[in-house]
Amino acid sequence: MSGFDNFNTDFYQSSYSVDDQSQATYGYGNADNPYNKPYGQYDYSQPMGYSSPGMMQPQQPYTGQIFQPTQTYTPSPSQSMYSSSFDDEPPLLEELGINFDHIWQKTLTVLHPMKAADGSIMNETDLAGPMVFCLAFGATLLLSGKIQFGYVYGISAIGCLGMYCLLNLMSMTGVSFGCVASVLGYCLLPMILLSSFGVLFSLQGMMGIILTAAIIGWCSFSASKIFISALAMDGQQLLVAYPCALLYGVFALISVF
Amino acid sequence: MRLRNSSMDGSDGSQLFEDTSRAGSGSQTGYRNQQAGPQAAGFPGQSLLSDPMSNLAMAYGSSLASQGREMVDKNLDRFIPISKLKYYFAVDTVYVGKKLGLLVFPYMHENWEVSYQQDTPVAPRFDVNAPDLYIPAMGFITYVLVAGLALGTQNRFSPELLGVQASSALVWLIMEVLAVLLSLYLVTVNTDLTTIDLLAFSGYKYVGMIVGVVAGLLFGKPAYYLSLLWCCVAIFVFMIRTLRLKLLSEAAAEGRLVRGARNQLRMYLTMSIAAAQPIFMYWLTYHLIR
């Protein structure tokens, strides 16, 4: 069964049909079209190359040999427990990876820009918090009459992509895209403050300009602080803070104008 | 669906699926598992993973994904040499500060040579004369945003205009680099200037452009012209002093008068590259300040 280890495209056609003898059919209506798929979401029967579906040989025991590669797949103990009954499954939030305590910790890190950040907090890429912040930002913009979710989404996508390229080029260790998106999303929190101010007061006076500048500085400072500590870059904090400031400046432009 | 299960096999009629970690379950249970697999997909994913068929599909899919990723990386490396690019981004704050100062005021700097370390140029972090790509990249993006701001104050702003500005500046940059490459080829200069070096040098003019436009936005047209003039002269001197060491021969670079058609041609080439910078700087900014 050399084909199994290689996972090349010939795999299904050549080797699988040999083992096809042992498990030909699903046993539902041999008269039916063997490719009839009552379960719409699963069409693995087709790529599996069931060339002889009509043959059913129950005498040959199902050795499970074909699934050799997956025998090395060791399900974590929790999973084999979970498969046993519905009640043992993990709570929904844990399964989705949303950990409110961590979200709160990261939020606090953003809100205290002067405090040194711990590099390990960004080890798990958590996009739930940033999603909430983006939606809150869009909501506060909506409150001041600007329906600009599209711009927020587009700018954050382009900005995350740009920061991802830049950080990968500048740092010794690379970053994943999820980590960049997560950090930038968390540091959007002060911008929500700015746009909620914008609901109540106009931001186009001198006060507004000073507030905008201060908030942009706050956002980019905490973002660069987290990046620096997570990626162990030295002497480059201002260099990382500047593109972050440009990105948040564009967000501020949307809030102000 | 349930009916089929129980009618088909007498043994485990109550369970929807079979735990295949048990060896020798028999062919029937194997089939049932496959059949029950899609059914059980309605449940949370653990039953999905215990189905060996979908295990296989997942493993195949992930290996396909990693193969695809390898292919992308390999091809990307062919077009854009990532490791070479990383050299140009190995900068730190002190370097950037000094370089920006040099771009605006190059008159006091004396030693313009790039230091080498066993045949490879030293990273920009350690040598202020080495070219980098951080400043040109940030300069380009800042230029596009400042252009948007300037157009906004004249009430001519729309997001499409940002894209137009960005693409036209990029096109001019690419054309300039190609023209310099062509002229270097025609003059047959033996130099270790790479394409990325030329890109970096051409990108340094954005700093002067930004200074000019910001001054014009804050203080009006005379300030724009004054600061642009200052920056044009500064970048002219900067380019001459930097390129002189790279393009001219040793003797001519030291300033001694060396006759000969080749050297003259090289000197003209250096001067024309340097003179092109102020022209571009004016061309790309004059329409932003009205």
Automatic annotation (TrEMBL), chain A:
Q: Which UniProt keywords apply?
A: Endoplasmic reticulum, ER-Golgi transport, Golgi apparatus, Membrane, Protein transport, Transmembrane, Transmembrane helix, Transport
Identify one Gene Ontology CC term for this UniProt entry.
Answer: trans-Golgi network
- Grouped into one coarse class, the protein's main location is endoplasmic reticulum
| UniProt-listed InterPro entries | Yip1/4-like (IPR045231), Yip1_dom (IPR006977)
Its subcellular locations are:
Endoplasmic reticulum membrane; Golgi apparatus membrane; Golgi apparatus, cis-Golgi network membrane
Query: Which residue ranges traverse the bilayer?
Result: 151-169, 175-201, 208-233, 239-256
Mind listing the GO biological process terms from this record? endoplasmic reticulum to Golgi vesicle-mediated transport; protein transport; regulation of ER to Golgi vesicle-mediated transport; vesicle fusion with Golgi apparatus
* Residues covered by the Yip1 domain: 110-254
Family membership, please give it. Belongs to the YIP1 family.
Entry protein name: Protein YIPF
Origin species: Lates calcarifer (Barramundi)
TrEMBL record, chain B:
One GO process term, biological-process aspect: endoplasmic reticulum to Golgi vesicle-mediated transport
- Please give the InterPro entries that the UniProt record associates with this protein: Yif1_fam (IPR005578)
Keywords from the UniProt entry: Endoplasmic reticulum, Golgi apparatus, Membrane, Protein transport, Transmembrane, Transmembrane helix, Transport
UniProt membrane topology term: Multi-pass membrane protein
User: What domain of life?
Assistant: Eukaryota
Query: Under the cellular component aspect of Gene Ontology, which terms does the record hold?
Result: COPII-coated ER to Golgi transport vesicle; endoplasmic reticulum membrane; endoplasmic reticulum-Golgi intermediate compartment; Golgi membrane
Q: Where are the transmembrane segments?
A: 133-152, 164-186, 198-218, 224-244, 265-284
Regions of biased composition (Polar residues) lie at 1-37
Q: Where is this region: Disordered?
A: 1-44
Q: What does this protein do?
A: Has a role in transport between endoplasmic reticulum and Golgi.
Q: Which family does it belong to?
A: Belongs to the YIF1 family.
User: Can you say what this protein is called?
Assistant: Protein YIF1
Which organism is this entry from?
Lates calcarifer (Barramundi)
Q: What is the lineage of its organism?
A: Eukaryota, Metazoa, Chordata, Craniata, Vertebrata
The protein's gene is named: YIF1B
